[in-house]
Amino acid sequence: MNQSEDLLPGDKVTEFDETLANVNYFLNVWLLMILSLVGVVANSLTIAVFRQQGWKEGVNISMMVISVLDLVRCLLTIFKRIHGFIEIVSPSDGVSWSNLTTPNAEFLNVLTNYVTFAMLAYVSLERCLCVTLPFTMRSVFNHKVTITTLTMVAASVYGMFIFLFLNFDLEAVFSANFNATIIILVHSRFYHTHSAIVDPYLNIMSMLHPTLCFIILCISSVVILKQLQKSRDTFSSNKKKDLDNFKLSSSIYCSPTPNIRVQSSTKAHNFKLYHQVWTQQPVVWNLEPQTRESSNRQITRDETLSCEA
């Protein structure tokens, strides 16, 4: 590809301009193609994992749809950068391929990126509400609601930027640099008629949309972190309380109990004791009363044993 095609007539091409153009060409074509190939493999594995987990959880559906959109973006990037291979054989055909795929692949890639931003904002907001109000929102955000919401988000974002596809037309012109006919992009009649409205609208929306999604993502992330920290503190407090109760029950179990005769139902009695300790209820020793005769026999037996000793 002749890198001086973008220069105006009469401009002089310096060595720095050529070097800068070559670096830009390498980054924009070959590096992006390599990264897109890696993205195809990574997103394919991610989709397989979420598919294996099932469709019951809304977050699995959302993350799988985002992975599918990211996979589509990687494929569109590779499709657009094929002109790098074509230019090795025919530079004019490579330029024609690049211009031909710009309205179809490049613009669709940009809009899919905006859809991904919106879906990430929705997922973060959904997680924030589920963490804040788990019992209420968990039943609200079921798989049907998630699929419907994601469909509406995608349709609304594509609809907001539909004018981007109407701004350009394709024309075949003769290029003196290539000495061949190439396909170029020209502004359409729609653009010339409504450019005073379309240009400001697209500029504002292209800045407002990702900024708003980023703000929602940041706020939701902060709220989620606060809720997780609060839950961690509560869990630590409950864990300390359980440890204290365990120490209390252990001390009661291990301490000697003179002058108390435990009957044959020792296991059931210990279970009752542990249950009362862990539920923080007062311990009541439910021992069968001894009759005077049995008590006298026990005392006589104890005295006999002590004399023998």
UniProtKB/TrEMBL annotation:
Name of the molecule in the record: Uncharacterized protein LOC106059410
Species per Swiss-Prot/TrEMBL record: Biomphalaria glabrata (Bloodfluke planorb)
Superkingdom of origin organism: Eukaryota
Intracellular or extracellular location(s): Membrane
Pfam families xref list: 7TM_GPCR_Srw
Keywords: Membrane, Transmembrane, Transmembrane helix
Keyword Transmembrane in record: yes
PROSITE patterns cross-referenced by the UniProt entry: G_PROTEIN_RECEP_F1_1
GO molecular function: G protein-coupled peptide receptor activity
Residues that span the membrane, as ranges: 25-49, 107-125, 145-166, 207-225
Gene Ontology cellular component terms for the protein in this record: membrane
